[in-house]
């Protein structure tokens, strides 16, 4: 095993019995998390991301496969070897703030250092607690009753408590979902800073694609218990390998068509040449996909070219950008343009389609 791999998941499988029969929550996945990386498990509800995290934490026992943390086997379905959660070198932050309401901020953060298996000498507790509070920007609030804090501050307390033991791995399950939209935006930036400053390897679960793209060094897109793609956010966004990832990560226009010749597809936007990434047969049904920001919309001129023509159905102003719904002859597409674009609803337009930036899926 490579020295800088902190979490190694091999052939992980987990199923549950339910009224509907056997639910295969995780289906033999492999995943390595490198030291100091921030890895995001992204997918819809029920895709297996939280179950995977809980197996790493030791809160669920897998039916197959193994989990290693920092080179130590913590769970193996084959050998039966199992290290309980409290003895794993991990910190955990959950969707609920999970703070002790009868303790103040200092006492909440100090708890892992004064009780349980991660205790340290008493003369080290104060320095470790204050260091964690500085990291999460709660210095000066150590004596405050935790119930007097805002939701965002309580989640920072939970984060400080998770990193105060200096764990090898920080596990976070939808930690921002209970915060309001503005606070979520602020905490995204702070979470990445805190994880980097603390030097902790992070495995993070979310269904929020914006959260994943802004936080992750690596994004692992999951569906139906399987990993569909893993890579840097730029790669996941720019090069989705299949229709599900294209639909789930970012906005995308989808246009159904059929292969009509070599590198040619006939669709409601005409018969056009595309760069195929694999061979297709003539007559094969495909789906063309392109992101709204890669399409240009312009007022219909007196001498229109060969570009598709349409009319603006709706215009949604977002400040720095505008989203147009454009009705073409057979389909409706979405175009994202600059916020100062003067085109109005009901206006006749033509759309400029690039030769690049297209994706083709069967």
Sheet/helix structural class? alpha+beta
In the CATH hierarchy, the architecture of the largest domain is 3-Layer(aba) Sandwich
In CATH, what is the homologous superfamily of the largest domain? Answer: P-loop containing nucleotide triphosphate hydrolases
Report Rg.
25 Å
Order of helices and strands: EEEHEEEHHHEHEHEEHHEEEEEEEEEE
Q: Describe the biggest sheet?
A: 6 strands, mixed
Count of beta strands: 20
Strand content: 35-45%
**How are strands sequenced across the largest beta sheet?**
6-7-8-3-9-10
The chain-level mean pLDDT equals: 93
| CATH third-tier fold name of the largest domain | Rossmann fold
**CATH class membership of the largest domain:** Alpha Beta
Polypeptide structure, described:
This protein has helices at residues 49-57, 105-114, 122-135, 151-163, 181-198, 209-215, 233-238, 243-248; strands at residues 5-18, 21-34, 38-42, 64-69, 72-76, 90-93, 169-173, 201-206, 218-223, 226-231, 253-261, 264-267, 270-273, 285-290, 296-299, 309-317, 321-327, 332-338, 348-352, 359-361. It is of the alpha+beta class and 362 residues long. The protein folds into 2 domains: 5-248, Rossmann fold, CATH 3.40.50.300; 253-297 and 307-361, Nucleic acid-binding proteins (OB fold (Dihydrolipoamide Acetyltransferase, E2P)), CATH 2.40.50. Strands 6-7-8-3-9-10 form a 6-stranded mixed beta sheet, sandwiched between helices. Strand 16 (309-317) and strand 17 (321-327) form a beta hairpin. The longest helix has 18 residues, at 181-198. The chain is globular. It starts with a strand and ends with a strand.
């Amino acid at each position: 095993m490579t020295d800088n791999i902190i979490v190694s998941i091999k052939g992980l499988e987990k199923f549950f019995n339910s009224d509907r029969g056997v639910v295969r929550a995780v289906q033999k996945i492999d995943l390595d998390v490198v030291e100091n990386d921030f890895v995001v498990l992204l997918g819809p509800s029920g895709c297996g991301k939280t179950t995977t995290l809980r197996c790493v934490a030791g809160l669920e026992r897998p039916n197959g496969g193994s989990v290693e943390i920092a080179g130590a086997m913590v769970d193996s379905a084959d050998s039966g070897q199992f290290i309980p959660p409290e003895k794993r070198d991990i910190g955990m932050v959950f969707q609920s703030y999970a703070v002790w309401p009868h303790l103040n901020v200092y006492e909440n953060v100090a708890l892992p250092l004064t009780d349980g298996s991660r205790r340290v000498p008493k003369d080290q507790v104060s320095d470790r607690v204050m260091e964690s509070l500085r990291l999460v920007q709660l210095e000066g609030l150590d004596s405050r009753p935790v119930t007097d804090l805002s939701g965002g501050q309580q989640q920072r307390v939970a984060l400080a408590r998770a990193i105060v033991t200096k764990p090898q791995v920080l596990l976070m399950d939808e930690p921002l979902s209970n915060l309001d939209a503005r606070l979520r935006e602020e905490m995204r930036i702070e979470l990445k800073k805190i994880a980097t400053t603390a030097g902790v390897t992070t495995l993070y679960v979310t269904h929020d694609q914006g959260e994943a793209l802004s936080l992750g060094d690596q994004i692992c897109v999951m569906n139906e218990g399987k990993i569909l793609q893993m890579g840097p956010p730029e790669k996941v966004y720019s090069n989705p390998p299949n229709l599900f990832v294209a639909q789930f990560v970012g906005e995308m226009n989808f246009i159904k068509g059929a292969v009509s010749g070599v590198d040619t597809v006939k669709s409601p936007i005409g018969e056009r040449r595309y760069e195929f990434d694999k061979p297709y047969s003539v007559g094969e049904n495909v789906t063309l996909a392109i992101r709204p920001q890669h399409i240009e919309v312009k007022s219909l001129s007196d001498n229109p070219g060969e570009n598709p023509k349409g009319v603006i159905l709706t215009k949604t102003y977002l400040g720095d950008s505008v989203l147009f719904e454009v009705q073409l002859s057979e389909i409706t597409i979405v175009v994202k343009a600059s916020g100062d674009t003067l085109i109005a609803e009901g206006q006749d337009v033509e759309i400029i389609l690039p030769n690049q930036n297209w994706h083709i899926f069967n």
